[in-house]
Design a protein that fits this description.
about 280 residues; alpha/beta; Rossmann fold; Alpha-Beta Plaits; four-stranded parallel beta sheet; three-stranded mixed beta sheet; globular
Length: about 280
């Protein structure tokens, strides 16, 4: 069968069993394909004992909250929104290599409060098996808060996540990843609301031009634009000028279009992967 369906069926059955065993869950829900798959299985297996929660802060890219709302409606899962204050944490603002630890510590502290209001509720995330091969200090924060990762525990990586999501007809099956806006800042560059807003304006402007998979890497007054390989290959002189103009209008003083295609987590390439406890 196409698209790895036999393997996907076994993995989906395993995932369902793992979620069903948790009884009541609070899903850390971004609306991306990983958390959407967890949420979809949770509501199918647990019904009203599953709730999806989306964190809102200046680090959330424009359009992502509405996207999460739309996916939650299609999944028919109860959806709540909470404000998080990671920018009030010095470790997050400092933007050392463990920035994500401070971000996730803030998130899971807030989700713990919600879970405590529901009998036997467990906080679950969309972390998948491939996250073990990248720098993920957020997994350390998750371990400290007792967060479960059904996809990771079932050995389901990103390709399998998308395969299963397609099989289930999830609206986010092909959605590009959109991590925290602070991921566009090199480690050591302080995170602030104005800087996050600048990055967000630039990326929003590029999406308005029709670019779908992209990052605007922030280097002070310079923006380095990374585009998906296919989009980069099609980018002619006029297209490059439109990209430059859009990013300059957003507030940057100089723009470089990277000649290498976008690669998720490129700022992590020199870091050692974290291992899940």
């Amino acid at each position: 069968m196409a698209d790895g369906l036999p393997a996907a069926a076994d993995q989906l059955a395993d995932l369902r069993a793992r979620v069903r065993a948790l009884s009541t869950v609070v899903v850390a829900f971004s609306g991306g394909v990983d958390s959407s798959l967890v949420a979809a299985v949770a509501v199918e297996e647990l019904g009203p004992r599953a709730v999806a929660v989306t964190a809102v802060s200046p680090a959330l890219a424009s359009g992502e909250l509405e996207g999460a709302r739309r996916v939650a409606r299609e999944l028919s899962i109860t959806h709540e929104e909470i404000d998080t204050a990671e920018l009030e944490r010095p470790g997050y603002r400092r933007n050392d290599r463990d920035r994500c630890y401070h971000c996730k510590s803030e998130l899971y502290s807030r989700l713990d409060v919600l879970a405590a209001r529901r009998e036997d509720a467990v906080v679950v995330s969309g972390a998948n098996a491939d996250d073990l091969g990248d720098w993920r200090p957020g997994l350390r924060a998750a371990a400290e808060h007792g967060v479960r990762h059904p996809l990771l525990e079932a050995g389901i990586g990103k390709d399998a996540v998308r395969s299963i999501a397609r099989r289930l007809g999830l609206p986010s099956a092909e959605k590009p990843a959109s991590p925290c806006l602070a991921s566009r800042l090199p480690y050591g560059t302080e995170v602030s609301t104005p800087v996050l807003a600048l990055v967000d304006r630039a990326e929003t402007a590029l999406k308005a031009l029709g670019h779908r998979v992209l990052r605007v890497r922030h280097y002070g007054t310079l923006a380095r634009v990374e585009l998906d390989g296919d989009e980069l290959a099609r980018l002619d002189h006029d297209g490059r000028e439109r990209v430059r103009a859009a990013v300059l209008d957003a507030g940057y003083q100089d723009v470089v279009i990277d000649d290498h295609p976008f690669r998720s987590g490129s700022l992590n390439l020199t870091l050692t992967p974290v291992r899940h406890p």
